[in-house]
From TrEMBL:
Family classification: Belongs to the aldehyde dehydrogenase family.
InterPro entries, per the entry: Ald_DH/histidinol_DH, Ald_DH_C, Ald_DH_CS_CYS, Ald_DH_CS_GLU, Ald_DH_N, Aldehyde_DH_dom, Aldehyde_DH_Superfamily, Succ_semiAld_DH
SUPFAM superfamilies: ALDH-like
The name this protein goes by in its record: Succinate-semialdehyde dehydrogenase (NADP(+))
Organism per entry: Iodobacter fluviatilis
Aldehyde dehydrogenase domain ranges (all copies): 21-478
PROSITE patterns: ALDEHYDE_DEHYDR_CYS (PS00070), ALDEHYDE_DEHYDR_GLU (PS00687)
Record's keyword terms, sorted: Oxidoreductase
Gene that this sequence comes from: gabD
Length: 484
């Protein structure tokens, strides 16, 4: 069983209105360790009624939370941040157990997750309005910014902690309250964060976590008129459903959806740096991030050298249970994830690609999969169009800048993109030509709390992190003072 320094962090109840509770009908579902198949815990299988109550409580709590000064809210968030950092080891162990990522990566995610709370605790104090030029001598025009109100969040399993703090941080700092539905595979990280929020003194109802039936909870969150904003991170398909469901009540939306990141290696690139970047971008979290390199475009002149260097690096990756030392790649989240990568590989091989490394389920069984490299990939193959969300690097060959930019932009998605070049003119031209919300230039790691994370096209709406991230939780109010 999971050994923690503070066993109280592992909760099997949901946290609504400051109360730890079971589903009304007592129903529960199991949370599994993907590395072993073992059940780690059971959590409440809640639905519409519990969600409705949680939203009502968030609405009551909002009245007093919004009246606190930004500094008061900041102090509570800062305490939450400190507690998250102090409990890094336990939070990472819980995350690795339910999600599978190596412990070092889980620890990294806890630091990354906490950084959003710290950042927005500070940023909340810097929300400012405006005074505008007056169009008439007896009038004055002012703009103030107010919290939008009760927010709902639906989060994915690939970053069980960071996808919560990236939403809750700005929401709470802005003076909003939030009810969160974590992914079914990884509710324990969310509940552990709620324990620490409670200990930090964040008042009842300001932050709630509801676990259970995704569709039912989502329907309540999107249809309830008390909810003024929904923030979702997950697949484009579910994002479309939630957007449609939110239409009748005209909710403000933040959507962080799928990606299909191109990773371009130009002929003037530092190839060793490009391999390092590709490894970080592609194989982190076993390829299960929405900003993972999904299509690797390599210039004809350096294609064979890059492929050989990449295969050498990939062959050194250690696959295993994330709780064991030195493991680089854990299991995939579930059987469906394994089937998707298998389908992508089979489709590519059948259409003429060749296997340079891996390609099979790993000998460890469960949902472990070999880190894989495919060469000779072209745009007719599934991997060119769909996000694989697994440890598969498909190598495409290109001959000119115009050709590769066209191929890179040939996607309904527009989240992250990457390229390697040392030519300053090309760097600007390519950076501006890529139709993506984020561009990594000579780096494979771009996410941090200071930067605006988000996409264009069908990758979503809004930005998270950075000072822009506050805007998603604020509304502008215009005051016109007349009769002066
Ligand atoms: P993934 O493919 O990464 O699992 P999903 O979009 O399916 O992405 O899941 C992301 C989050 O959305 C999870 O918390 C999941 O429970 C939730 N979810 C999935 N389907 C729905 C739905 N119909 N309504 C509301 N939430 C949903």
């Amino acid at each position: 069983m999971l050994k923690l320094q503070d066993a109280d962090l592992l909760r099997q109840q949901a946290y609504l209105n400051g109360v730890w509770q079971d589903a009304l009908d007592g129903d529960r579902f199991a949370v599994h360790n993907p590395a072993t198949g073992e059940v780690i815990a059971y959590v409440p299988n809640m639905g519409r009624i519990e969600t409705q109550a949680g939203i009502a409580a968030a609405n009551v709590a909002w009245a007093s939370w919004r009246k606190k000064t930004a500094k008061e809210r900041s102090g509570l968030l800062r305490r939450w941040f400190d507690l998250i950092i102090e409990n890094t080891d336990d939070l990472a162990a819980i995350m690795t157990a339910e999600q599978g990522k190596p412990l070092a990566e889980a620890r990294g995610e806890i630091g990354y997750a906490a950084s959003f709370i710290e950042w927005f605790a500070e940023e909340g104090k810097r929300v400012c309005g405006d005074t505008l030029q007056t169009p008439a001598a007896d009038k004055r025009l002012l703009v103030i910014k107010e919290p939008i109100g009760v927010c709902a969040a639906i989060t994915p399993w690939n970053f069980p902690a960071a996808m919560i703090t990236r939403k809750a941080g700005p929401a709470l700092a802005a003076g909003c309250t939030m009810i969160i539905k974590p992914a079914e595979s990884t509710p324990l990280s969310a509940l552990a964060l709620a324990v620490l929020a409670e200990r930090a003194g964040i008042p009842a109802g300001v932050l709630s976590v509801v676990t259970g039936k995704a569709r039912e909870i989502g329907e309540e969150m999107t249809s309830n008129p008390l909810v003024r904003k929904l923030s979702f991170t997950g697949s484009t398909q579910v994002g479309r459903i939630l957007m449609a469901q939110s239409a009748p009540t005209i909710k403000k939306l933040s959507l962080e959806l799928g990606g299909n990141a191109p990773f371009i290696v130009f002929e003037d690139a530092d190839l060793d740096a490009a391999v390092l970047g590709a490894m970080a971008s592609k194989y982190r979290n076993a390829g299960q991030t929405c900003v993972c390199a999904n299509r690797l475009y390599v210039h004809d002149r350096v294609y064979d050298t890059f492929a050989a260097k990449l295969v050498a690096a990939v062959s050194r990756l250690k696959v295993g249970n994330g709780l064991e030392p030195d493991v680089d790649q854990g299991p995939l989240i579930n059987e469906a994830a394994v089937e998707k990568i298998e389908a992508h590989i089979a489709d590519a091989l059948q259409k003429g690609a060749s296997l340079l490394f891996g390609g099979q389920r790993h000998a460890l069984g469960q949902t472990f999969f070999e880190p894989t490299v495919l060469a000779g990939v072209d745009s007719s193959m599934l991997v060119a169009k769909e996000e694989t969300f697994g440890p598969l690097a498909p190598l495409f060959r290109f001959h000119s800048d115009a050709e590769v930019i066209a191929m890179a932009n040939e996607s309904e998605f527009g989240l992250a993109s990457y390229f390697y070049s040392r030519d300053i003119g090309r760097v600007w031209r390519v950076a501006e030509a890529l139709e993506y919300g984020m561009v990594g230039i000579n780096t494979g790691l771009i996410s941090n709390e200071i930067a605006p994370f988000g996409g264009v096209k069908q990758s979503g709406l809004g930005r998270e992190g950075s000072h822009y991230g506050m805007d998603d939780y604020l509304v502008i109010k215009y005051l016109c003072m007349g009769g002066l």
